[in-house]
Amino acid sequence: MDLSSIFEMVVLSSAMGSMVAVLILGVKWLLKSKLSAFWQYYIWFLLVIRLVVPMGFETPLSKLNVIVPAAQKVHIDQNSPEINSSQPASSMKVKNNSSEVQSQEKGSVQEVNSHGFNYYFNVAGIIWAAVAVLSAAIILFVNFLFTLKINRESWCKDMDTVKLLERCKSRMNISRFIPIVYDTHVGVPSLLGVVKPQILISPDLLNNISYEEKKYIFLHELAHFKRKDIFVSWIMLFLGIINWFNPVILFALHRMREDSEISCDAYVLSYLGKNEYRRYGETIIDFVKFISNSRKIPGSIGIARGKSNMKRRMTMIKNFKNKPQKWWVILAFALISVFIMGMTNLPGKTVISANEKNDFSIRKSNIDYVNIVKKFLPQNSKIITSDKTKEEDNVLLKDLDNDGRDEIITAYRLAEETSGEDEKISILVLKEKEGNWVKVMDEPGAGIKLDAALTADLDGDGKQEVLLGRRIGGTAAQLSVYGWSNNGLDKISREDIYYSKLDVVNVQGNSRQDIAVWQHDTGEAYIVDVLKWNKGTFIQDEENYRGYFKEVVVPYYEEKVKAVPDTGFYWYYLADAQIKAGDKKDALKSIDKGLQLNTGYPSPENFNKLKEKAFK
């Protein structure tokens, strides 16, 4: 998985986390005092889960979603027959990391700007990674130095103090060895360490506080240990580093830390008598004056973190009631609602459209690239053109290796080669290296023009494969797959596949991408299949039929039967798509409609075979 893929996952997770954070804040505001201090804190773990788990799961709400665009593509269409004028996924919106270039009747070619969305997204990913790595390195380094320093400090050997700590541990059923370490830099008493926990306290402070205050300090720090707050604080710290660009997440994590202290106070109060609540609160207030002189050490938690949260802590202590609340039904409903909505996948799209043009602009300097291409063409060869297109319309720019710089893609024909059934073309790909253009692919083969140039991660290894298609007939094209090597682009597909139209599909819960192949049948009807990459060839991926057929194929044929309701083959293919989308009830209705029309094609036998599939 490359950096841009990781950054995309982080951005999507952060956006979804922001929604969860807002929902949590809304629930907390609605329930207000009805939520105990315990639940005020632990409801935030739904946000932590959302940020830690990169992918959501499917819920009924996910039916509103489509899957995030997957691949980058360039599609060229010169003098296409009428059958290709209607794109199967025309209702699907194209994201900037998916590009299509399509020749129009006047021959104009739309191209991806060399510094388009991908380029800036990659730059943003590099900046994000640099800030995150630097922040993490600084925090870990500071913590490492402080831990080394603490390991050289002496332990408290005052027997009365040690015995008091042991009594507090016994009261909380803690058997773990936790020493008291003298340190003059922490200011307020703190707990440090996940693996080897220790209580840090200034020797001067320890000698000038009462026995009762020592007890409250120890109970508070032991409560942090019992609740695994140090471990959670590290998780929150690194979630903040990963989402440093998102103020909503940073604010939510700040509130979670504040609620952690309030929840910890409530936990301590559950071990105290009512007559001790006030004195415990006064002890916390007494330590606030030490905060300004206290060093904030990553991975440590003190009895008084800051002054901003003090009012809320005192209010909780004043109103604390150590008994179960009666609002558990509302609470459970709220938690489940937040969890389901929070874990539902972001709205996205299954497929990239093959007919969206408004995201791209015409390059003004195409003629320069034509001259570059001509330097690499063999003698007696020419760039493929038509009656409606010029050379500059057929020299295309596309970032094929996701490095933020465009490669040049074109197709040419040798002068002695003539049009006909055996017509051949060569696909030429040029890459800029250190200011010079070099040839990375020059492959001859059957065809009349370059049909498609796409990039997609077919095997989920984080590297984009290159898919190049040659138009070999009016409605037929041939697709080959290539991979990058030190020598350039090498063909890695053992056998080619044939298609009329092509889409690239994301696979939910997987970093790989599939392709959807549309093969022309009759009229504007196509036989559609979803294929996955398997050891140099494509095979059916029936496990991922549902999403693509539901979001793309079914709507396509619903439009067709709406426009031409008396055409039997559209009802047939609609029923087939509905079966593959998992909607067998509607499929049976479509089959019955097709049988009633009895148009001859497909035959009633074919409709009945389809009905058998629907009943399975």
From TrEMBL:
Residues 10-317 form the Peptidase M56 domain. It comes from the Bacteria. InterPro entries: Beta-lactam_resp_regulator, Integrin_alpha_N, Peptidase_M56. SUPFAM superfamilies: Integrin alpha N-terminal domain. The keyword Transcription regulation does not apply. Gene3D superfamilies: Integrin alpha, N-terminal (2.130.10.130). The chain crosses the membrane at residues 6-31, 38-57, 119-146, 177-195, 231-253, 327-346. The keyword Transmembrane helix applies. Keywords: Membrane, Transmembrane, Transmembrane helix. This is Regulatory protein BlaR1. It comes from Clostridium luticellarii.
